[in-house]
Amino acid sequence: MGVVQRFKTWLTHPLARGLDLDDPSTTVVRRRIIKEKAILRLVYEEWYRLIVESLPKGDAPILELGSGGGFLGELLPDLIATDILHVPFISAVADAHELPFRSGSLGSVVMVNVLHHLAGPRRFFEEAARCVQTGGRIVMIEPWVTRWSSFVFGRLHHEPFDPQARRWDFPSTGPLSGANGALPWILFQRDRDLFERILPQWRIESIRLGMPFRYLLSGGVSLRALVPTWSYGILTRLEDVIGRYTENMAMFAHVVLVRQPDPPVEMQAPREGIA
């Protein structure tokens, strides 16, 4: 084994070695890594706070997609936690393209790093529009396309990252292995006019970019942490300063969509099209 390969092997988190992304047991392992790796847990806690702060007031149920590896339910005890895989710690197994909920029964839908795994995003947004009440939200944390993130996700990350993709949908190789990390940017920035035209049920309320370093240096769910936990506050302040001057360093986006009243039937976009 060469020096480079030995270094890569050492860099991989011991619990993450040899995992099959589409095996439910991998999600269980990742949940353990997120909760036990202190600096990564801080990243998730910050993302969860942003999500909770973005939710509308009210008692309508909140649905989380892709819950299996996370712990948002600790902040939202009544959360409906779902995942595409049969794993512990969830309320139900659910496919985002065919949501098993009554029309108008949900207050909001939330997710962390899930949208870019959905092979048919238009179908998901239509399903979410069916289930979410007018005024409800879709709140998400997702990868974003910038100069910095294109380098990191395009060269150093295992998931596909294709900002040039002509279509929104992509062949699904598996529930977690199939992806296009650039999909959120494609939907909400590159093709924003098209998104708003064919999915008028959703208004893009806000897109906040950030976290150029902290997730990367935490090692995520696959690698060892590259910095000590005590550096988190220092890195946060550094990112705040950088964010005042440039958004080209951001790696993630906090996106909020608001459910609009249904348009008249004659104004609804046809099913054929980009996705």
Attribute tags:
single chain, 275 residues, alpha/beta, 7 strands, globular
List strands and helices in order, with pairings.
Blueprint: H1 3-11, H2 24-36, H3 38-54, E1 62-65, E2 80-83, E3 92-93, E4 106-112, H4 121-131, E5 132-143, H5 147-155, H6 183-190, H7 192-198, E6 202-210, H8 214-218, H9 232-245, E7 252-259
Parallel strand pairs: 1-2, 1-4, 2-3, 4-5
Antiparallel strand pairs: 5-7, 6-7
Helix pairs in contact: 2-3, 6-7
Give the H and E element order.
Answer: HHHEEEEHEHHHEHHE
* Class per helix and strand makeup: alpha/beta
Biggest sheet layout: 7 strands, mixed
- Rg over CA atoms, rounded to whole Å, is 19 Å
Helix content: 25-40%
Shape: globular
Determine the strand fraction and express it as a percent band. 15-25%
Oligomeric organization of the protein chains: single chain
* Low-pLDDT ranges: none
Number of E-state strands: 7
- Average pLDDT for all residues: 92
Structural summary, described in words:
- The chain is an alpha/beta fold.
- The chain has nine helices and seven strands.
- Helix content is 34%, strand content 17%.
- Helix 2 packs across helix 3 and helix 6 packs across helix 7.
- The longest helix is centred in the N-terminal third of the chain and has 17 residues, at 38-54.
- The radius of gyration is 19 Å and the shape is globular.
- The termini are far apart.
Give a short overview.
By secondary structure, the chain is of the alpha/beta class.
